[in-house]
Every structure is written in structure tokens, then in C-alpha cells.
Write the C-alpha cells for this entry.
Amino acid sequence: MDVLPTGDGWQGRKIGEGALSEIFEVILTRTYILTAGSQYKYGAGSFFLLLWGHSLYEACARKVFRPGASIPVENEVRILQRLRQGEGCANVVAFLNHGFLQPRGVWFIEMELCDVSLSTFLYGNVRRTVPVHVSRQPPFSVLDPSLEKTKKIWDIMRQVAEGVAYVHSFDFVHMNLGPDSG
Amino acid sequence: MPIVLYSEKDSLWKIAGFAAACEAHSPLRIRLQHVLWGPEARTEHFDITPEIDIWSMGCILYELTVGSRPFPTQSDVDSHYYLKKQITIPADKTFGPLHNAAVTQVIRSMLRPSPASRPTAKALRFIFQGFLIRVEWASTPNAPDITNLASSRTPEV
């Protein structure tokens, strides 16, 4: 089971002036209950599992919204659904499911489970103790004679540009790009 | 909530975090803190255009290549000054087989104060693809030197 950090940036963060954190948790689920086959996905059993908070997917990232969140969950769902209707882009995270968890009274969005964020990839799984503007060692030494790392930079940027171009082709603006939410 | 993610399953970088996403030219509903927004977000009549994402990508690229954020802070009104001045790239930075001037120019163009003068994501995709090919070319063994290909000097045969 993968355990990803819950301390730095993964828990609810402050959005707007004095607002409560709207997105108050990101749960990464790895439930192997439904590995038998997809016939369970839309059966009666799936509703029961959904009721109890299990995911229908073998592995997914589930974002849970506080009831009455001022960022409406509909906005994110609408945009993700619209992006799913197109030809699709491998550099945009896949949207799997959304719904309402009855016992907890919260809305959730389920997305494809990824392994590491760019920020964690660059600086490791450490809590930021210095402000981001303080100059650090460049994450990739461009003087590296092997050129592997400088190749990595352009590979990452090309893929990010690919995903952003796809989002822009729907006339959407992402508005929150960054290695991390900061 | 991380925004740029890596999936080991298909070895791809993906963008996520669409909570603040919206249509272009729609009214600004929420103000996020500590995000990489260009100076146009600080003007009174802020029109949401896709170019604000290009600015954020420029900040990511700057951080990848230089190792720090291009501007000290983006959360205060005082930082307006920093957003207006042209960014500097340390003189000792080299970008492998790429022309320093070319890379610097691309980073600068992404961080232009005027949104209309920034390149589109579609164009950047090809620019980065070109850089990637150039680096891959240089890393192949026994590859001829093509770093001076763009210079006006005719190569000696």
C-alpha cells in the first residue's frame, strides 16, 4: 500500500481570506475488494460499497469536499467531465468518478492515482522549512555531463505544455499551475 | 493539492488540480493565495485569459533550471514591483548543448508582463520538443556537433 504524505500540502489548505479549507482531505485508496471484474462496478454491490466509503477502483486518488464548501464541487466536476468528452490527453489526469458519501455527508471526486508530485520529485518528501524564494541547489544540475537531467527538464516541460495546450483547447484556464500548491 | 504529478504506471507527467479552473473571460470567483499568477491578476479589471497559465509554466521552468522562484513572493501587494521588472537569469547558468540565449529568451517570453505577448501552450510544446531533441542529439555517441547550426557563420566543410 502506498502511503503518501498527509502533512505538507495534502491536507486542506487555506483558500481565500479567512475561509475554511474547502478540500479537507485527499485519500488515496487502494482497495482490492472489487478486483474480480468490472461487472460489480455498476451493480447493486457498488452502491453499497460507495455508501460505506470504499472506492470502486482498484487504485485512485479521492478528493473529499467539506459539506457546504465555498468552492463548489460542481465546478471541478463540470470541467473534468468536459475534458473527458474530448479526444483525451495522457498528460491530463484521468477523471474516474464523483458522488456523495452518505454516512459522512461529503462530496468526493475520484481521479487517477499518480505516484509523486513535481515538488516532491524535486526536493524530496520534506516539509518546507525555508521559503520557496530562497535559492536552493538547482534540482537538476545542467552542468551534468550525462545530459540526462537536462533532458529531464525539457521532457517534463514538454509534457506539461501538452496537458496545458489540451486544457486551453477547451477554452478553459487552469489558474493554479505549479510544482505544488505552494 | 499537488498540481503536476508523475504516474509511474505510464511514465508520464500529468496536470491535475482543476478546483480553480474556469472558462476564459469568466469572472474571478475565488482568489487563491500563493499561486504563480502574473501581474495582470493584480490589476483592477482582471480578465482571465489562458496566458496566466503560461506565466505559471514559466515559473516552473525557471525553478527547474535555476533552482529558485523567479520572484521573491507573489502573495503581497509589495511584490508588484518584482513582477514588473524583467527577470534575471544568473550568468553562470548553462543549458547543456543548448544556446544560453535561446533558453533565456524562452523563459523571458513566458514571464512577460503583458499577457498578449506570451507564447501559447501549443507553441511551447514544439519549442520544448525541439530542445529535447537537441539534447538527445548531443547525448548520442559520436553525434556531430550541431550547436552552431543556427549561427550565421557558414560551417567549414
The first strand of chain A starts at residue 23 and ends at 30. Residues 34 and 45 of chain A are 10 Å apart (CA to CA). The first helix of chain A runs from residue 44 to 51. Chain A touches chain B through 79 residues (CB under 8 Å).
